[in-house]
Amino acid sequence: MSSTTREEVLRHLTAVVELQPPVQKTGKAPYPTDITHELFRAYTRSPHDVGGEVDVPCEWTEEEHEAWGHRAYVTTECLAWRGVWCAEERRRMQNVDLGTSQYLGLPYYGRWLLSAARILVDGHHVSLTELINKIDEVKKRHEPA
Amino acid sequence: MSQHDRTHHAKIATGKGDPQCFKGTAGPAKFKVGDQVRIKNLPDIFYTRCQVYTRGAVGVVAVVTHESPAPEDEAWGHVDQSEWFYIVRFKQKDLWPEYPANFPNDTLQTEFSERWLESV
Amino acid sequence: MSNDHDHDHDHGHGHKPPAPMVDEISDFEALEIAVRELAIEKGLFTAEDHRRFTEFAEHIGPTPAARMVAKAWLDPEYKKQCLTDAIKASFAVGVDWLNPTGFGTPSDYTDLRVLEDTPTMHHVVVCTLCSCYPRPILGFQPEWYRTPNYRRRLVRWPRQVLAEFGLTLPPEVEVRVEDSNQKCRFIVMPMRPAGTEGWTEDQLTEIVTRDCLIGVALPKPGMTTNIPLPVHKPAKPAHH
């Protein structure tokens, strides 16, 4: 059990470096004078604002959604239905607050799901401790005996 | 964060819809259909729904749509102030320097809250 | 996403046997269950709310929007209503935009606009910022509509993107891109094609596909399905 966790930890420490943009691989925070206006704007941009960016033709595909993805969508809409947040708060948290790396790297409904988890905590409906414990409990429920 | 009163939106919008629930809350519209407008390059720190690709471009108001809180405010649950919204139409050749010259009539339109528009 | 059960090698201190009877779940599934259970436990919404909204979501699709266009082709007065008050016009095709909450769906709002194609104008819709889409009358977006790729390119290279969907338009036709970035929601009303004289509303509805209502295809007699594309299948699909 513990060696599996240690292996996961060591794999994680390698994986996160892969997500780091080359411009940041210096191990130091940049000097303020290194940040041009273009870089400042690029770093503080809203990640969802992609219109007009250069991209290449790709194969257009359809996708049948995972059951969890659709349930997550319904959950976010129910949270808004009952006034926990509104759709625009969700979009901000889901499409911008996550940051560019998660925005481009996670599945579509994965981001809906993360924002739903986030509003529970940010809205003080659930403590992070409660969320951590619940996720742990759910995972243990589904572990093989 | 979201409103403390979780029943607020249902109270104001049931039977009406959203953005209809904000009708009458923004005062007079500053612009009308046909007005030439330029998109302001306000700081877009933390959140914006005014696309960067439109900033500084000049277009024409095509439709005055509705009143609503601006998304930059609604994204933090602030719904006490509303603005008029406008669909603004641009010529593609005014947005993109490399847009092919043999399609001079192509257009693009998108929607802005009033704070993003200035008269030309 | 990841399954941590690697049975290809022996750990030496207790090999985990495969457990086909156990419901293995991904990180996403675990989080989804956790969030939904916590929300219900804390009284944020009820299980019944989730069921009701799920049922609403399972019953939406593109047919009402297709029928709206077909009706508009047959009835000039209805067409006028579609172009001036599309929310009201939606009732005639069985869509009440205030459903299922009484004030609409939180993400789709209640301001539908119909974009009328003409012989010199073709519309196509995108939401560059996310994937805003008129779900109550059109169902769920195709995956390609949500991609950063479509959202980056349609606003700047629309004719190239349309050509990739098989649609080429002559230069004298204005291609108008609608970037749906606020609370308005849009469907395209394409022109009625030749070869449909005397058709019934049902027949016309059949050829107004979802792709036509987004604007990446034009309706044609005999074309009753969307452009055939590869379909990515889920690991664990929803059962409807």
Query: What is the β-strand count of chain B?
Result: 5
CATH architecture of chain B: Roll
- What is the H/E order of chain A? HHEHHHHH
| Gap from first CA to last CA of chain A | 13 Å
How would a crystallographer describe the biggest sheet of chain A?
A: none
Rg from alpha-carbon coordinates of chain B: 16 Å
CATH fold assignment of chain B: SH3 type barrels
Q: Give the helix proportion of chain B (percent range).
A: 10-25%
| Structure class of chain A | mainly alpha
Low-pLDDT residue spans of chain B: none
CATH superfamily of chain A: Nitrile hydratase, beta subunit
Question: What pattern of helices and strands is seen along the backbone of chain B?
Answer: HEEHEHEE
Number of domains of chain A: 1
Instruction: Tell me, rounded to a whole number, the average pLDDT of chain B.
Output: 95
Strand line-up of the largest beta sheet of chain B? 4-3-2-1-5
Structural class of chain B: alpha+beta
The number of helices of chain B is: 3
CATH architecture of chain A: Orthogonal Bundle
Number of domains as seen in the coordinates of chain B: 1
List the quaternary state of the chains: heterotrimer
Envelope shape of chain B: elongated
Structure description:
The complex is a heterotrimer of chains A (145), B (120) and C (240). Chain A has 145 residues and is mainly alpha-helical. Chain A has a single domain (2-47, 66-141), classed as Cyclin A, domain 1 (Orthogonal Bundle). Helices cover 59% and strands 1% of the residues of chain A. The longest helix of chain A is centred in the first third of the chain and has 17 residues, at 2-18. Helices cover 12% and strands 28% of the residues of chain B. Chain B has helices at 8-13, 71-74, 92-95, and strands at 36-39, 58-68, 83-91, 107-113, 117-119. Chain B has a 5-stranded antiparallel β-sheet with strand order 4-3-2-1-5. Chain B is elongated. The N and C termini of chain B lie far apart (37 Å). A two-stranded parallel sheet of chain C has the order 1-4. In chain C, strands 2-3 form a two-stranded parallel ribbon. Chain C starts with 26 loop residues before the first helix and ends in an 8-residue tail after the last strand. The interface between A and C is large, with 68 and 73 residues.
